[in-house]
Amino acid sequence: MKHARIQFDGQAHTVTVEDEHLRLADGRLVHEDQVTWLPPATGSMFALGLNYADHAAELAFSPPTEPLAFIKSPGTYTGHKQVTWRPDNVAYMHYECELVAVIGKAAKNVKREDALGYVAGYTVCNDYAIRDYLENYYRPNLRVKNRDATTPVGPWIVDAADVPDVSNLKLRTWINGELKQEGSTSDMIFDIPYLIEYFSSFMTLQPGDMIATGTPEGLADVVPGDEVVVEVEGVGRLVNRIVSEADFFKNNKASAA
Amino acid sequence: MSHALHDVATGTLFGVALNYQGLLQQHEAAFHEAPYKQPPVKPVLFIKTPNTRNHHEGNVLYPAGVERLQPGPALGVVIGKDASRVSAEDALAYVAGYTIVNEISLPETSYYRPAVKAKCRDGFCPVGPELVPAAQVANPDALGLRLWVNGELRQHNTTANCVRTVAQLIAELSEFMTLHAGDILITGTPEGRVDVQPGDRVEVEIDGLGKLTNHIVAE
């Protein structure tokens, strides 16, 4: 089953997905064109850097010996079919297609062999980065990775039981319909069981927390007007559109008023 | 944690590192070398995840297998309304009030990579004892701050020594991410962090905000 969060008639709802329709808790069925998609989970996101050997090489890094993790807070998430802004006057903003494991129950000191039992399901994120803003302090720093509406997540969470082999899923990114990035979760350096064991060895992962497992090689710049689609086979296809800084904040102010 | 603080300050915990001039100066030479290459240009930020939340008189577990543990006395700024792209002149109007944060951490030997393992352990962010309304704090950038361990003064400084004022931080952060009502900005820990041991009583005191007390307990 697929679970999503949507905005409908001015209210947030938790729904199940039935093809192009969404089933509300009260039984009503609404078409996806009638709703605004919200991020399907709202916990902390533990995002992995350099977790695919080919991508590490692309960025001229040797693969890490311990997971390189950074944290994202809910303000940076946005939903399926929403917009993300490219700041004015930057040279390089790129997408990152990632498989995300969503934690289903509190996880502390979990061993690798038990780890997948703590996963509620899987979703997809596009972990955009503005490379111009990289500084060598807590790198990748928040100004690169924790910007408003710059981490699309969704469209939904697929139950773990419906993903038979999470370690062999194709990842793909398209810009305006052109395939730009292609890889497989089989090339991860630290897999999901390892990562759950790692994080839970020093902290408690909470229900709704997400582990964004990193991206393979094949990065490219995106500009206002681009439609960017990231897909993880068997999990979901997450659509996002790039807008200019001026358009984003103009619309933002309009919706806030 | 008082009810007012507990009800209001439920958002994200954003930390600022290297925000005391003395601390930055200690590292000045190293920050011109690899891997840093140049001193920080923008505020150096981190996130304390929600599992780190702790409260006045709460126990802080000293993790098994860890060699050193350090309290981090810091002024906490509680955001009162959503702040997106606010100027430094207007920034303090977005503050609900102030509180004390003990930003507990394992010692940091490097600032190059995010300090998740050092800073995001359960209970590593006591906040309290209460939310002091902004109107009662005449100048958040001139508050004395003291760390007491078992009644002995071990660290003292003043927010007047911060690299960036509270208003400057709100302006620079809200340029790229909205600070939401209920978020807490942890405005930095001064140089001279000390080690604490299981059994220690750790108190952070800030002028006008009271004293935040916590107990270090072996895991």
From TrEMBL, chain A:
Key word Metal-binding present: yes
UniProt GO molecular function: hydrolase activity
Pfam family, one: FAA_hydrolase
Domain Fumarylacetoacetase-like C-terminal, chain residue ranges per copy: 45-243
UniProt xrefs under InterPro entries: Fumarylacetoacetase-like_C (IPR011234), Fumarylacetoacetase_C_sf (IPR036663), HPA_isomer/decarb_C (IPR012684)
SUPFAM superfamilies hit by this protein: FAH
Family recorded in the similarity comment: Belongs to the hydratase/decarboxylase family.
UniProt-recorded name of the protein: Fumarylacetoacetate hydrolase family protein
Automatic annotation (TrEMBL), chain B:
Transmembrane intervals: none
Record keywords: Hydrolase, Metal-binding
GO molecular function, one term: hydrolase activity
Domain of life according to the entry: Bacteria
Fumarylacetoacetase-like C-terminal domain location: 13-217
Family under the similarity heading: Belongs to the hydratase/decarboxylase family.
PANTHER family membership: 4-HYDROXYPHENYLACETATE CATABOLISM PROTEIN, ACYLPYRUVASE
Name of the protein in question: Fumarylacetoacetate hydrolase family protein
